[in-house]
């Protein structure tokens, strides 16, 4: 829960109190006061500071998007290496709607939904979201991955009939939030009935959840930890007890007294897994000491380097016998669509992926994910969640626009930076 003014004040007061303590005056009494205050104010229950920042984040949350424009589409179809240019940022306000259908349960948990809505911010963007670019044709690229091989002849004729190709001109708004696709319309309904597609379609008007989290009233060290998501205490995407674990919070806050020697776990429904941050450094923001936790390279490494990740390796061919790093197969949680997530510009991913495309330049500063946590309260004061959405496809003789490709592709469509300001 990024802090609002009152929350900043509290954190400030805590720090103030701490300074007094360190000044050597109030050591035993101060400790009790501080602990008493935190245990009370960090509980997710009406009237607390934590509650106020939990319902709707105290800070404003934006999503900045960079779209990947393909500058040589015709050549790629004939076997050339794709040349990409990122275009952005296009910024949307998100997470501004209060959590909905909140129920305080009798067992010290809270049930709720997180509603989704994105509102374009022209003054924080390089242009209108009607700006058009040449981007991957999502439906055409994904078709061989979701449609049975015996219908690929129909797919090929639908592509031709609708004048579609592997690439298309689309506006930023369409790519992100959805558009009716002429190729899908040319496909018989019994094969695919939903004719709309888009990277985040559907978004506006949907809600994520239900989530059940601990309110911390009985045990403050459990506050905000997720115990159920979609009525289950584990996921069902990875067919493995470890990879299916729902760990930690949603990263908006963590239980108080954050220990920099421990990992901070959090769950993100968008990446369909739990992940963690590791302590990187301590710094001061507006006079408040914060710990920066970053998602490390190891969290996305191949099972070769990080055996824990064995169950995130789902495809021996695509992952080159589980030696590939830095991409996460979301097919099981995206209804079979060949969507793969990575860090922006394939930061920390295997060279063979990066080498198949031109125009990408990963760097840690711009592309890593971090949360800056106030260690006493566990409140997240600042964060940047960064990820890239890619579509996997391979050469196939059955579809003309895919028949001459240079190789298989983990093809980037867009990357995003979600920040709390
Ligand atoms: C929230 O509750 C309302 C009223 O009971 C219901 O109509 C709505 O479907 C619920 N929202 C979600 C996301 O379940
Ligand atoms: C607590 O109560 C809620 C709502 O009845 C339920 O979904 C949840 O499973 C219960 N227990 C725990 C540990 O989450
Ligand atoms: C989502 O809905 C809001 C409120 O109706 C609207 O302002 C916004 O433009 C919509 N966003 C998109 C991407 O359609
Ligand atoms: C951008 O415009 C919105 C209103 O549409 C305003 O609330 C916001 O403060 C502006 N932001 C900047 C950075 O100018
Ligand atoms: C496809 O292009 C051809 C020739 O340019 C045109 O005659 C036809 O109407 C187009 N079909 C569609 C569905 O746009
Ligand atoms: C979940 O958390 C436990 C510690 O509570 C940890 O051992 C495990 O590695 C985590 N699992 C995942 C998938 O992050
Ligand atoms: C991609 O297609 C080629 C043949 O066109 C094949 O040799 C290769 O195994 C395929 N790769 C995957 C991951 O299926
Ligand atoms: C994967 O392992 C199999 C069996 O050991 C081997 O035949 C194949 O060449 C390996 N593929 C790659 C891409 O390393």
UniProtKB/TrEMBL annotation:
Disulfide bonds join 243-311, 272-333, 313-322. It holds the Pfam family CD36. GO terms for biological process: amyloid-beta clearance by cellular catabolic process; cell adhesion; lipid storage; lipoprotein transport; long-chain fatty acid import into cell; low-density lipoprotein particle clearance; receptor-mediated endocytosis. Keywords: Cell adhesion, Cell membrane, Disulfide bond, Glycoprotein, Golgi apparatus, Isopeptide bond, Lipid transport, Lipoprotein, Membrane, Palmitate, Receptor, Transmembrane, Transmembrane helix, Transport, Ubl conjugation. GO terms for cellular component: apical plasma membrane; caveola; cell surface; Golgi apparatus. The keyword Transcription regulation does not apply. GO terms for molecular function: low-density lipoprotein particle binding; low-density lipoprotein particle receptor activity; scavenger receptor activity. It is a multi-pass membrane protein. The chain crosses the membrane at residues 7-27. Its main location: membrane. It catalyses: tetradecanoate(out) = tetradecanoate(in); (9Z)-octadecenoate(out) = (9Z)-octadecenoate(in); hexadecanoate(out) = hexadecanoate(in); (9Z,12Z)-octadecadienoate(out) = (9Z,12Z)-octadecadienoate(in). It is found in: Apical cell membrane; Cell membrane; Golgi apparatus; Membrane raft. Belongs to the CD36 family. This is Platelet glycoprotein 4. It comes from Engystomops pustulosus.
